Structure formats: structure tokens, C-alpha cells
Amino acid sequence: MFYVGIDLGGMSIKAGLVDENGRILKKLTCPTGVERGAKAVVEDMARLTLDVVEQGGAKLEDVKAIGIGLPGIQDPETGRVPFCTNLGWHDVPVIEWMHEIVDKPIYIQNDATVAGLAESVAGVSANVKNSVFLTLGTGVGGGIVLDGKVYSGSHGVGSELGHMITVAGGDLCTCGNRGCWERYSSASALIRMGREAAAQAPDCLIMQKAGGCVEKISAKTVMDSAKEGDPVALKVFDQYIYNICTGLVGIINFIDPEMIVLGGGVSLAGEFLLNAIREKLPTMVFYKTMPYARIELATLGNDAGIIGAAMLGR
Amino acid sequence: MFYVGIDLGGMSIKAGLVDENGRILKKLTCPTGVERGAKAVVEDMARLTLDVVEQGGAKLEDVKAIGIGLPGIQDPETGRVPFCTNLGWHDVPVIEWMHEIVDKPIYIQNDATVAGLAESVAGVSANVKNSVFLTLGTGVGGGIVLDGKVYSGSHGVGSELGHMITVAGGDLCTCGNRGCWERYSSASALIRMGREAAAQAPDCLIMQKAGGCVEKISAKTVMDSAKEGDPVALKVFDQYIYNICTGLVGIINFIDPEMIVLGGGVSLAGEFLLNAIREKLPTMVFYKTMPYARIELATLGNDAGIIGAAMLGR
Q: What ipTM was estimated for this complex?
């Protein structure tokens, strides 16, 4: 039996033919073309599905289900997609439109949730019963796996971990609240913190790496400078690690998962990031002598979206 | 079939004979006497169990299990109780000692978790699949019910909801972190905020109700003054409602329960508290047009500890 996983993003649609164990057998990509409207995008997802099955050497009758990971949520009542960040979608009948072209069971989930599921099937959290996956990127997304299954809550609005409030009254968030965790722990936050610090210390390594141009400072510039021991970058990095840990502590003290998996652009800093978090966290958890969640890096990278989406139908 | 539920607190041990539906048939109480040491307390729990079964007109062979709710946690590895707040217990073999006197299956859980279970069996969250229970008291405790069952995490250290960080870098907490939610949303927080405000405004109604003595200001004094429209008290109350909502938003955005139940001393403010939260929360949740958790008041009061403990064995 095969599965098709679709990873819908603002820039591209990726579709993969995936086997029972989460292995990608064939992968195809096309541009999203958001400006064409939702119907055209959904039709492309359906056609890419048919193409990837055929080019993967499979038959449609051997495909059990299609899964879609997208930057939004599905309304469990209507089955429609009420929102999609960056795509400007409102109340789109994705399944209905897909079914006009391909008649298979279709499952839809948030992209971070899907990536978390992928890790729990074929990645670092394989065989872990309860895990929380985090994408530290432009924002902070979350995926929850409980008892081996995707958990998205009673109304489908859960796992928005970036919008736990960790700094009440703090910076304004796109969601309208102040002090959401992602304001302080996303890649965007690290960039902002790095730029502010570098503007105050023009001789620092961060600034040198950015060719003296504050606007060119990226998350990687800050991380690399900290790795090389630059004091300005290290100060930013220490604060950033604390910011990440404020939310991790909430996750641990709340649902106490077996593992927390770090994905997204920031996680590319690898062991340097991981070791700093693993050093800070034990001083902050509530039960200081009891075991708590292992913190690990995601391993599937860009394929997580396809694999996790495919596994929704398993 | 019957169950025995034991509610162990710093002041008293309460034991109840409970039927399958969570109804208390007989209830007995004795002082805890913490100063006598853990062994004496555990022996009293065992004897109270035998007494409540006999005086309830039941036979020990009709008792399926004994449940204990206590202000601590059980180590799932050892079965022992590594900590018990206010009792000064460390690594106490509760089950082993109980079994020297009464030979029945014994289940142990945190007191807030147990109260949440009680509400989900015989209280306001009966028949609710996923719920979060909060005790707004001296601190803030939490109980999680997922899929109708108690959820305390992968290592038994979950549901410590009062120790989500909502004000990073804020007030120092007993747990060693700064800015834990309970520092801002417990009864103690309301009292502190009321006292600070009243000290600045000696003519306010809060101060009058406390007979001009700041030390006599209680959570009830502040709540009652706010109910009567005192501007100083209302300002404190508004801030307090915001503080509560910062954590509620985290709970909703994280695990999106079907219901959040408010218990503990603060919840005695009733509809006044509930209405204020229900008015504030919709402006703060992430998905503003999607349904989210109903917020309700606990209904079982002091019996929740006995009922929930008994239901652990069901």
C-alpha cells in the first residue's frame, strides 16, 4: 500500500509517493502560484498527486490515502480550511475540490503538526509515544503526538505553541497579543536581537560577518559569531537560549512529553544550540531531580512535510 | 463494587467510601499530624480506609481499589512519593506501608489532578473528553484529562500548570524560576496585588472592608470590593483577569481542551470571575473565529479530592 503526501507552502507545492514506513519513493514539485487563487492551487495539488503516483510506478488503486500539510488548520466541523497563513485563504473547500479530480480519502493538518508526525514515524522521535515538535523559523510552530497519534485538540485549534504568552505585556505579536513565545524564540527574534546588539557594537564579529551592514545580519550570522566566541554574539545567544527555555519549561511542566524535537531554520545550528539548551534547562524545570523530556534535533529536514502528510492516512 | 478515596492534605486526612458513579456513601476525617512523620500518617490513611469501609456498611472484599490524592507526585519508576509539598516528605514508600495494613490495589496522584478527574466523572466536566482543571489557591495546580483518562505525562511530572512561565524575568517563584503563572494568577497573587493597591489608596473600599489593616486584606476582600464597583479594586481585578487569561491562552493554544474548569478558593467568586474571564478571553485566543474551550466553575468543592481519588481505581 502507498500514500501520497503533499507539502503546501507559500512558494511551492511538493508531492511525494510514500510507502508504509515513511520512505519517499518519488517526489515532484511545482510553484504554488498563490496569486492564481485557491481553486487553481488545489487543482495543481490533485494533478501533482496523479503525476507522482504514475511517475513513481504505482497505480492509483494502490494508494490508500492522500495527506496534505499546510500553513493553516482544518475546521473539524466543516472539513474546510478556514485560514491559511501567507496564502490568504478563507474557508476553502480543499477536500471537495480535490475530489473533483482524484477520488481518495484526504486528510489535512497543520504543517508543523505534519512535520512532527513525520519525525515520530521515520525520524528522531520514532517509537516515542508522546512528543512535541517545534519549528523555530520565521515564527514558532508546534506539532503534538500523543500515544503515537497526532493531537490537534478538541476544536482543531491546538498546538499553536508559538502563541503561548511567555512575556505578558511584551512585544506585540501578529496574533494581537503581547509577549507570545515566538516573538522571543523564533529565527526572526534571533535576527532582531542580533541586529540590535550589533548596532550598539559596530566592531563585533556579527557586524564583520555581515559586511558592516546591519540589514544583512541573519540568524546564521549571529549563531556563527557566537560559535566563534564573539562576546556580543554570545550575550545575544545566552538571552535567546533563555527565551527558548521559558517556553520549553512550559511544555515540560504542562504535558511532560517524552521528547521535544527542534526543527526549522534555527535547528540547523545543531549541537551548539542543543548543548546550550540542555545545559540551561535542568536549572529551570520544576522537578529538578526527576527525569524529563529529552531535547533532540529534527532529522528529516525538508522531507518531513511530505512524509508526515503521507502518514496522516496511515 | 466500591472504591475508597483518600484526600491527604497538610491539615487533615479525609477518606470516603465511593460508589461506581462517584457518589460518596460515607466520609471520615482525622488530623494529618505531619510532625509525627510519614509512617504514622500513612498508617492513619490505612486505618481510616478500614474504618470508612466498615462504617459505610461495606465489606473489604467489595472494595476494588484505594486511591490517594496528595500534594505531590508519584515516581512512575519506583512507585514511591519523591516529594510532598507542605508535608516535607522525601521518597516515601506509601504503597508499601499501606499494604502492611490493607491489601488492595493502590493508586496515587497529585491532588489537583485528582480534583480534575472528580469533576470529569461526577462534576461540571462529566462526559467531556479533554479537559483541564485548575486550582486557583495558594498556588495554581493543574489536572489534565485526555480522552476521559488522567494524563500526567511521560515521567509523571506534567500538569504543573502554575509553573508555565508567563512573565519571563518576573517575580521569583518558589520553584526557582522567575515569572511563573501562579505568581500572577493565584489567590496569593490577588491578595498581594490588593494589598499593594490599598496601601496606595487608604480610602478605598478594600481597605474599609479590612478595617483599615492591610494585613487583613484577603482574596475575598478584593473580590467583594470589585463586585461593589470600587475603582481601586476593579483596577486590581482587571489586571488579575488579564493575568489569568495569559495562562488560559497558553492552555488553549497548546492542547485546545474542550473545557477548562476553575476550582480552588478564587473560584468561589463565581459568576463575577467567570464572566470577566469569558469577556476577556475571546480577544486573546489565536483563532478568533473558531470555537475554543468552554470555561466553567468547579462544582464538587471539597469533596472533589475524595471522589477523584476513588475514581483513580475505576
A: 0.93
DSSP state, residue A91: E
How would you list the strands of the sheet with B72-73, edge to edge? B72-73, B81-84, B89-92
Inter-residue contact B8 to B70 (CB < 8 Å): yes
Strand pairing class (A2-8; A63-70)? parallel
Which of A130, A153, A254 minimises the CB distance to B154? A130
The nearest CA of chain B is from the CA of A1 a distance in Å of 30
| CB within 8 Å of A192: residues ≥ 6 apart | none
Over the stretch B26-84, which tens digit does the pLDDT of each residue have?
999 999 999 999 999 999 999 999 999 999 999 999 999 999 999 998 988 888 999 88
Is B158 close to A285, i.e. CB distance below 8 A? no
Sorted by where each starts, the structural domains of chain B and their CATH numbers stand as: 2-122+303-311 (3.30.420.40), 131-298 (3.30.420.40)
Return the C-alpha cell found at A102.
482524484
Q: Which of A154, A175, A158 is nearest to B252 (CA)?
A: A158
Give the SS3 label for residue B44: helix
List B6's β-bridge partners, or say none: B15, B68
According to the 3-state scheme, what is the secondary structure of B57-70?
Answer: CCCHHHEEEEEEEE
